[in-house]
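Provenance and format

Records in this collection were gathered into a single text stream. Each protein contributes a sequence line and a token line. The two records reproduced below are adjacent in the stream.
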Amino acid sequence: MKRILPLLLLTAFLSIPVHAGAQALYGEDAPSCREWVRQHFGAGKRPPFSFRYDGVSSDRFIKKWRYSRQNGPVQDDGALLTRHFWRDPRTGLEVECAVKTFPDAEAMEWVLYFRGGKTRTGQINDVRVVDLALPAGPEARVFHAEGSTAEKKDFHPRETVLQAGDTLWMKPYAGRSSSHAFPYFNVRTRGGGMVFAIGWTGTWKASVFRGADGKVGVNTGMVFLDTWLEPGEEIRTPMTAMLPWRGDDRMAGQNALRRFIMAHHYPRIRGEKVHPPLCASFNFGDPPPCNVYSCFTTSYALALVERYRMFGIVPEVFWLDAGWYGPSARWQEGYDWCNSVGSWQVDSTRFPNGLGEIADAVHEAGSQFMVWYEPERVVKDSDWAYLHPEYLLEAWGKPVEPHPIDRSYPDSYLLDLGNPEANRWMREEVARMLREGRVDHFRQDFNIEPEAFWYNNDAPGRLGIREIRYITGLYTFWDWLREEFPDLFIDNCASGGRRLDLEATSRCIPLWRTDYDTEDPDICQSQTFGLSLWLPVHGTAVWRDDPYVARSSLSATTIFNWKVTSPQSDIRRMHARMAEFDAVHRYFMDDFHPLIGEGDLTRDDILLAWQLDRPEDGTGWISVFRREKAPQTSALLHLKALEPDTVYEIEDWDTHERIRKTGRELAEGFEVALPALRTARLLRYGAVTGPVK
């Protein structure tokens, strides 16, 4: 049957009591996160989370439950795990809060687990993974961002000022964690603030509420969770990380989050951080009625690899996107990449020797091979729909019958990753495809809204179980894939940037951050600006080799989609753009400082500028853009985070002109000329010794 958002759950979540809690985490004499955890977790204490059990708030009984604690060893990344347990003496329900503290980042995070006892539990709902308060102050501001909607506004910075009684409510759309909302936010109050990062690749929720006393309550959790548990059954909740910061500049918190992600929530290969690569497509797209790579062939692929090698522009990764498989039963005619997902057989007409022949040529050229897959969505009448209907979920709760025939529309099923058998089978199928194609890296897309598939298949009284099983199954798949193929990275797409929560960033890198028109350089600038406030690594496309377009898309990772067979492309400019990428892209993994950019960043009459700073060695890069209708002919830049008495040299990447100024002078402002419309200036700087000239 169909379900809508349970109003009681939503109302309960928005009725936020403001508890004492986090005000001690910043300001003078603030304890460390580890000490704060010791103060707030223990026997007889109200922990900084809450839930309702059979209609009663945990505030009324949690102090009376049996409490115990386990201290884990210090982990490889320096984090200390402590596990806190509360057990109901009547029903045996156990609640665990697994807390990690990170001394190097001065951060903490936790996740809740609920475990059934010897008999069926009562009803568990209104679970607030984080339920705490920040200190009162003259104002409360929440810095947050748009999620991905394939529009100009994707990742646009937002700021909400909370008055007494105001609540900011955030949740993603229909089951993908950064669709229409963004799972990171920064709350500023008196003396500093706290950044929150949510790890849940499904439908999380968060609210920030300002009470009449000025205190700011923060709650996080999962939108749909109202269930009982069988004896011995376990569920987990979303994870939330928190980073306190002090002072007046919210970028202290933003950059603390970026460093925290790189240190503790960024994937690694054989112990080393995944290198964000320079990618290139095989001349992305073909003329209609072809679609993406639905007309692509082995011979064309081999010719393009040879052309890239001939021109000296071989990328680190060759990227083969959707459409390399054959049509499903229904779509022998009218086939495109979208309507045959689930028929994962290489098209033998176009690729008679499989994808391995292309992979061999790519490897011989000194590059790596990445291929697109979408294993979670299964189109009706595709091979997988026929092979294992018992592994599939219908959107409106109908059972999937063997050999489904629906000639009306190419609708989709959802492969139930929460089913251990289905998950195991899918893992084996993906591994087979990777090995047969000699594929180095796995590009995973997800072009479906899963929410209806989850909640319309929950049993009565078990709201949220399908989502929890599915999301934890997704993590099982990702973790297994990275263990089975230790040199592989996962590119997380999901219709372009719709799964960017903290759990996903721990396992995947987003090479394609939006499905919005990536040929619009101004919007590429805006999205780099907005997303870099939170995440260090993300990528987008470069379609042309002129400096304004290419620098607008310059990020930690980039895919060059220029047409190497077109006379509009210039080999010398391609070399120049690749050299810029090589020089700059690693700096996106350091500190980010916005220099110019307020209000609506999508307008074509503004300047935009940012600074990438590496504090360890005093070097960095500055990007400045004058858009097509911007009236200003220069930009006054005030650089950030430099040592006041240190002399820095700034060099123009194009003209090699240099100036030297102290960090204090650069903070006070220096002018950059922008004489022409559609100008993109790229400047690098470094600390030097000697007098100012």
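Adjacent record:
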Amino acid sequence: MTHDHLKHLIGAALLVLTLSLSSTVVSADELDELPIDGWKQLREVERYQLQIAEKYWREQNWNTAAAEYEKFMELYEKSTGAPFAQLKWALAQVKLRKQNTAIKEGFQTVIDYWPDSPQAIAAAYYIGRTQKEIGRTREAKVALKNVVAKHPAHLVGVYAIHDLIDMATAENDTVTKVDLWKKLTFDIKRTRDSNGPCVQASQQLATHSFREGAFDEGVKALATTYNAAQMPSHVVAYVRTPLSELIAQEASKAKALKLADQAIAWLKTSSPADQSTPEAKTIARQVLFGVADLTALAQRDDQVPAAYDAIVKAFTTDDEALGRLAAWYKSKMNYEKARETYRRYADKGEGLSQVGYSYREQQNWPLAVQSYTQLLGQDPERKIRWKPELAMTHRGAHKWPEAIAVYEELVREDIANAGRWRWEVGNTHRDAGQFKEAIGHFRQCENFPENYKQMAWCHRQLKQPNEAIILYNQVASDKASAPWAMLQVAYTREEAGQTEPAIQAFQQVCKKFPKDQHASTAHAHLQQKYKISVTLGGANEE
């Protein structure tokens, strides 16, 4: 993978991450909070009691929290805070897995005794959600639909729709899902609290519409979330998956090509006519990248080079476009064309580096070395950047002395990062099986505990268990590494044939770190190898 291709993938991953963050799972936490005005209406003694209950709630001490909410209701049943306390008591019952109690004695009580309170609206939603969580789907649907019908402009309506979508998804009920996505996308007023579910719905509706060939409908859905400048990149992002899925099947290829044509045509019309401003140029460039990407996804291989060349022509020499074109050539296993493309880079040094890397990908070590050596001659000002690539190439070819010689040069030339290069010298000796030499270099490093971990491993390869154990015990002084280090002590003793000490060491891991994943590993190992059962937190032989 080239650096430019990696950069492109990272950019795509960041976009996906941004999209996923805007599609977070809906939480109803806003409904179980008492507004500031509600706190102001309480008397001081009422506020004090409710704060105690809330403290235990935040600590997730559900039993105690429930008792404190109940105490509030007993002491101050006529308080304006009573419906809130009753609601929170019911939610505590849900946390305690007493859902039926929560519904009948908690949420329903809020509705019956305080029908005009804000908490009654929340309680109606929580009844439906709780029924959904315990598998009473039919009742949940009725309850949640009633919430949507009675409170279409309230946040509970948004949450209820989201839960109904979940159930429709589980039942593979696409018709219902689409109807609900449309409601969230087009009908619900977007606020700070409702925006997340509405954005998610617009994205899901767009993806579905694109997959079904309703391109214009997908664009309309996205336009409720993104402005004109954002639309080109997001249309491409949400067309990609449906297009890839459709093009992969012979039966849907025609549909895929039509979708690609529609998307490309739309992109071209969204490019600014006046590109005199930096903002307009950015949009125009995004459009051209989108056209090229979709052309490649549509497997129109004869048109891909021209699509990327259009970017290069429009924006002089565009190394990002050339890098993505080269990456596409490599995906087609046409490395010669990829290298030809890299040599067109405006940044000649970066281009030659990519040429060298492409040879490395093909394990053509001599030509990779030749490329990086040529690069060092042509671009000596950036030798600190290129020399590690040359060293990695020698390591890939198992030319250990040559790699070490390059790293030693870096130790002398790049004083600020000398420790990093000393570490790589140690790693190279280790990879070469030169464990004694590796230990000597790791000892000079200052990145404890990592250097001690490597030294210990090298001692194990040299059949020097005592030296390894001494180092692992020192690693254990680092709290984060302690469970791992103690487990390594156990394995080291086992390798040395010290069966009883090894068993004791495995048991110690279970005893000292019962909640750590390394204790689970030690526990499983004791059972499988030695037929010994232990209780995490204390060892007991069967």
